[in-house]
User: Fold this.
Amino acid sequence: MLYAVAAINLQNQTHMIFSEAAERNKQPILNILRPLLANHKAVLEVGSGTGQHAVFFAPALPHLVWHPTELPDKLAMLTSMCRSYPSANLAPPLPFDIDDDHWPAIQADAVFTANTLHIIHWPQVCRLFSRAGALLPQQGIFCTYGPFNRNGRYTSASNAQFDEWLKNRDPESGIRDMNDLRQLAEECAITSVHDFAMPANNRLLVWRKN
Ligand SMILES: C[S@@+](CC[C@H](N)C(=O)[O-])C[C@H]1O[C@@H](n2cnc3c(N)ncnc32)[C@H](O)[C@@H]1O
Assistant:
């Protein structure tokens, strides 16, 4: 994970990791999410990481409840961040692994995940789409942010370098192709409805339950 600076929460001595990328991309993502989620009530975030997105989005979207989640061994860091920046509509973070048999018992009408699809393995991507398709109610949306390939090609030299770095670290990780995701989504009863170009050669892909 590309986290730059480790900060120390002096109050509880928990080491919090800080993502410079999340700091840069949180406002552009919020600009898209605000109108998209205007009529939604509860968002399940998968792979919340440091929680920088959760603590920024929740107070900016006060009409809904934001539910951050993380792998059990990273939950303490996320919880520490959420406690440091509390919000009435920011739910306590929950442990969640995409490989879990059961999803958190949350009645979410939206699922959000940032920078996870290139980290997890393809079978986990399939599982995530399948579960999102099953969990969401009709018209529920699934928002996926990160770098993506188009028609089997990188969209920038920096994404190509990043993919090489990812695969050296974990051969089963890597930037996913939008065509593969669209095909997968169709199998999971969700459809591509938006493809937003974002700064730094990222995209925000939005899927809707059919
Ligand atoms: C690159 S980080 C992105 C964090 C944050 N969403 C962001 O954009 O800054 C990828 C995240 O996916 C989480 N993750 C990896 N495998 C996972 C799994 N099997 N289930 C749930 N989350 C997972 C990691 O713990 C990590 O926090």
